[in-house]
Amino acid sequence: MEPASFTRSPSLTRFPYRRGLSTLRLARVNSFSIPLLRQKPLPLRNSASLILPPRSIRLRAVEDHHHDHHHDDEQNHHHHHHHQHGCCSVELKAESKPQKALFGFAKAIGWVRLANFLREHLHLCCSSAVMFLAAAACPYLVPKPYIKSLQNAFMIVGFPLVGVSASLDALMDIAGGKVNIHVLMALAAFASVFMGNALEGGLLLAMFNLAHIAEEFFTSRSMVDVKELKESNPDSALLIEMKNGNVPNISDLSYKSVPVHSVEVGSYILVGTGEIVPVDCEVYQGSATITIEHLTGEVKPLEAKAGDRVPGGARNLDGRMIVKATKAWNDSTLNKIVQLTEEAHSNKPKLQRWLDEFGENYSKVVVVLSLAIAFLGPFLFKWPFLSTAACRGSVYRALGLMVAASPCALAVAPLAYATAISSCARKGILLKGAQVLDALASCHTVAFDKTGTLTTGGLTCKAIEPIYGHQGRNNSSVTSCCVPTCEKEALAVAAAMEKGTTHPIGRAVVNHSVGKDLPSVFVESFEYFPGRGLTATVNGVKAVAEESRLQQASLGSIEFITSLFKSEDESKQIKDAVNASLYGKDFVHAALSVDQKVTLIHLEDQPRPGVSGVIAELKSWARLRVMMLTGDHDSSAWRVANTVGITEVYCNLKPEDKLNHIKNFAREAGGGLIMVGEGINDAPALAAATVGIVLAQRASATAIAVADILLLRDNITGVPFCVAKSRQTTSLVKQNVALALTSIFLAALPSVLGFVPLWLTVLLHEGGTLLVCLNSVRGLNDPSWSWKQDISHLISKLSSQDPTSSNSSNSLSSAEPSH
User: Fold this and answer.
1) Bridge partners of 304?
2) 3-state DSSP call for residue 625?
3) Catalytic amino acids?
4) Nearest-CA neighbor of 330 among 375, 278, 293, 368?
5) For position 315, which CATH number holds?
6) Shared-domain flag, residues 490 and 565
7) Residues 469 and 584 grouped into a single domain
8) Could you tell me the residue range of the domain that residue 283 belongs to?
9) pLDDT by residue (tens digit) across 218-258?
10) CB 35 within 8 A of CB 238
11) Distance between CA 156 and CA 405 in Å, rounded?
12) Which has the closest alpha carbon to 225: 47, 463, 413, 458?
C-alpha cells in the first residue's frame, strides 16, 4: 500500500487508536490554521476511513512492513514506512523556509523520530498522566522529606513523554506563522515550567492529551467507517469463458479469475455461495439468497432469481448464480456509496465555512488579549507580574485566558453534521454533503412524482385496444392476451421501441411481451422526447397482404400521439375513442401509432405499501405542504392521490412544467422545497428544488447526478427520516455552539480573576469540548418530531395488547414500510 502523504498540520498529539483489527493513527489537525477541507480528499485506493471533522484526520491502517527511501532532489525527501504494528512515522512537510530549516535541524538530531515514536504509543501518554497525577498526590501520601525528590523524579520521566512532540509541533506552527490551540497550550505549559510551576505545566499537557484521546474516540464513533465496505468488495471476479458465443450451463462451466476493475459491461460472472457480487449485475442463470444489509441497512435476506438486478457488494448466502454485468466497477453501487459518503464529509456546511474563516483571527485575538492582561494587569489591577504566595500574577492569568479561550469546543461543533450523515448512511440514505441538512431543515413543501415514487412503478399491461385506423375492428373488440394480429403487431413494435428502457411504462410493455409469439421488429432510427414519448422507424412488421417495409411508429401520451396528426378531425376522433374506451380512465394509458393506426395500451399501477403513513407523517408531524406533480392524466393521478392521502395534485405536466411549478412554489412559499422523484423527466425539477431526493435503485443516471439525497432502499420511508434528522441536526449544532461559548466563558472568567489554577482551567476547557462531542454523538440516535410524539408512541405501546402493533407508521427507525 502507498503511504498516506499529507500536508504538515499543527499537532500536539498523534496517538494510535485500535478499531477492529486495524491500527489507525490519529493526526491532530487544527481547522483554524489549516482548514481541513482545503486538502484534497485521500484517494480511494489509499483511504481506509473517512476524513474526520476539523479537529482530526484519521489516517489509514498500515500493515505492510517495508521501507522506501528515495530523494527526488535535495529538498524533496520521501521517507515511507510500513509496519504491521502501526508504528510508522508521521512525515512532517515543511512549507515555509523557517519550517524547512527547523525541520531539517530536528530531523538531523533525531527529534522528529523521537516525537513520532512518542505520539504513536498511547500507553506512553497515559503513563505520563499517571506520573503527573502521582507527583501531585505526593504531598498527601508521601512523608515530607521525600516529596520533592519523588515529584522531581516523576516529572523528569513524565515531561519528555508529552513535551517532546508538543514542543516540536508548536515550534513548527510558529515557524509557519500559525497560531492555534496547540501553540497556545504549548506556550502555557512551558511558560509554567519557566515560572517554576513545572508540575502544573506537565498536568496541563497530560490532561490536554487525555482529553483529546477521549475526543478522538467519540469523533471516530460518529463517523461512517467505509473501510469495511471497501474490504467487502472483492479484488477479482470469476469471468465465464463463452462457448461459441453462448453462455454454458451452470453445471458445465469454465472460468478464469480476472481483476474486478477489468470486468466489462455485458460480461458473465460466476458468483458462488459466500462470495460477494463484484459489480452491479442481472441474474442470468441460477438463483440464490442474498443480503445487502451492509449496503442499505436492509436486514431481511432477499431472493435473487433469473432477471433480477443485484447491486455490487451484495453477499451470496447460498446457491450459485451466473450474472451479467450491467455496470463497470467504477459505476457500481458499492463504489458509488463509498465515493458519495466520503464526498459528503468534504462538502462543508455553512457553520464550518464560517469557522474556517473566523478561527485563525480568533486565535490571534486571544494571544493579543493574553499579552494585554500580562503587561497591563500590574498597572490596571495591581496584580504582580509573576505569581506570589498571596496572589496569582498577571502572566499566570494571561496563560489561563490563553488556554480557556482556545476555540476547541467551537471547532468540534459541526461534528453533529458528521453524526447525522453517519446515521443516515446506516439507514441506506446517502447525503451529498452536510449542507444538504441545512437546506432540508429550511423546507416547508414536499412534492412527489407519482409513477415509480408514490406507486410501485411496476406497471402491468392490462389490455391492448385498437382504437383508430384498424380495418375491420371496432372499439368493442378488446383483448388482454394479444392473440389477434393487430394486438400482436402493436405489442411487438412497442416492445422493440422500449427495449432497454428504464421507464416504468416501457418496462411494463417489454415484460408483457415476454413469452408471446410476436413478429420480429427492428428499430432503424430513434428519437426521444422527454416527458412526452418517442418516435422510431421500424422494420419487420408485416401489414395485411404486404411484405416487410419501413414504418413510422410513435409511442407516448395521448396528447403526444394526437399532436402528430395534422388533421384536427383525426385528433378529435382519437380523443373521442380514448374517452369511449371500455376501460375508462382508471388506468395509465399509453398510445402507439404505427402508420396512422393508433392502439391504446392500458396499464395498471398500485401505490407503494406504507405510502399513506409516510404522507400522514409529513403532514401531521413535519407540518409540510404535500403535493403531487405528475405527467399522468387527471383520473389516474387522483386515483393514487386519494388512496395515499394527497389533496394537492398537478397533472399532465411535461418536464418543463414540473420545473416551472417547482420554481413558482418555492417563490410563493418563501421557503425551501423538496422534490422526490426517480425518472429522467424529473431531473430538471430535482435540480431546481432546494433538496432533490431520488430512489437510487430505479433512478436514472441523470436523476442521481442532480439529486442531493439518494435513498438506497426501494421505498420512500426515508423521506420523513431525512426531514426529522435535518431538524435534529440543526438543533444539535445550535446546542453545540451554545455549549462551546458557555464553556469558554466559564473557564476564561475565573481564570483571569485568579480563582482557579491553570490545570483546572484546562480541565474546564476540555470538559466543554467533550460535552460538545457527547452531544454530537446523540445524532446517531433516531430522531423524533417532538416530545409529544414520544409520549404518544409510549401510550400506544402501553395500551396495545399486541406487542407487534407498536410499530407505528410514524416510527422513523422502521426499516420496513408499514402495510
Assistant:
1) 288
2) strand
3) 449
4) 278
5) 2.70.150.10
6) yes
7) yes
8) 234-275+279-331
9) 666 655 555 566 666 788 899 988 877 677 777 777 888 89
10) no
11) 29
12) 47
